[in-house]
Amino acid sequence: MAVHAHPDDESSKGAGTTARYAAEGNRVRVVTLTGGERGDILNPAMDVPGVRDRMSEVRREEMAEAARILGVEHEWLGFVDSGLPEGDPLPPVPEGSFAAIPLDGPVEALVRSIREFRPHVVTTYDENGGYPHPDHIRCHEVTMAAYEAAADPDRYPDAGEPWEVLKVYYNHGFIRKRLLLFQEEYERRGEEFPMADWLKKWKTEQGDLMARVTTQVTCSDYFPQRDDALRAHATQIDPNGSFFAVPLDIQQKVWPTEEFELAKTRVTTSIPESDLFAGVEESGRR
Ligand SMILES: [Zn+2]
To answer: What is this enzyme's EC (predicted)?
Structure first.
């Protein structure tokens, strides 16, 4: 089960991994906490009448297509996108939105989904949200609380039979070393690196998240599916944007994995891992 804040996050974080596990015959469910109602139209070609005024419907259609491409099941939990607050100081998130409401409702909804789907492995974001959006930080808090509560028969007794998730992972997408290796590959080819500015702006003092990575899942065969799924979120993704700047063959050759951090486990495993299900079979709890 991959828990995400907004429609499109499932296609930009760990998408190759979910597509791979689904293709290998596992049931994979993406759970999206909010409807993405406050997403801006980030693709100029989609900023046309008939799109902006039916944004939440458009995002549902986009999400259904992305799930189809990734080969995963999908569930909406129905909370309201908080939007990305901008300004200094930051304005409060809108009343009633996902990041503004008490944790209890979202935790219960996710506990219900976990007890029904009974996943062995759950992925979410780290305590910083992986990206400083209030809904992403909230996604972390809700998932971690639901991991504990789903297993506890005294919590939410009306939300199904208790279920112990065996492992929880954080997605780690922003790996500086990955871009450095891409840059080296461009230098070797005598070509200009299209993301050089991005790399220059990257503050090294943030530290490299690679230090936190415990698990690298090879999924380069599924990068085309990942990109197609992301492009299905046509209002959110500029096909000429930086995500698609580095050609797939370079990505597949230089960095064929996606990165995760094992945050919680109820099974024995050894680090580093190359499989999110490492230790699950051996535990006899599959
Ligand atoms: Zn998001």
So the answer is: 3.5.1.115
C-alpha dist (Å) from residue 201 to 152, 191, 195: 45, 20, 10
Q: CA-CA distance, 9 to 108, in Å (whole number)?
A: 22
Which run of H or E residues covers position 263? strand 257-265
Residue 237 included in any domain: no
In a domain, 110, yes or no: yes
The total number of structural domains in the chain stands at: 1
Q: What one-character-per-residue DSSP string does 90-119 give? A: PPPPPTTSTTTS-THHHHHHHHHHHHHH--
Identify the domain containing residue 98 by its residue range: 2-173+257-283
Distance of CA 9 to the CA centre of its chain: 5
Helix/strand/coil for 214: coil
Residues with CB under 5 A from ligand 1 (ion): 5-6, 9
Asked if the structure places residue 71 within a domain, the reply is yes
> Are 230 and 8 within 8 A, CB to CB?
yes
- Dist. CA 104–CA 279, nearest whole Å: 31
Distance 165 CA to ligand 1 centre (A): 24
| Annotated binding-site ranges for Zn(2+) | 6, 9, 136
pLDDT computed for residue 181 by the predictor:
94
Q: How far apart are CA 126 and CA 254, in angstroms?
A: 25
How would you classify the pairing of strands 257-265 and 215-218?
antiparallel
The larger pLDDT score, comparing residue 285 to residue 277, is at: 277
The CATH number assigned to the domain holding 27 equals 3.40.50.10320
Q: Does residue 65 form part of some domain?
A: yes
**pLDDT at residue 218, as a whole number:** 98
What count of other Cβ atoms lies within 10 Å of the Cβ of residue 62? 24
C-alpha 149 to ligand 1 mean position (Å)? 24
Whether the pLDDT of residue 187 is over 60: the answer is yes
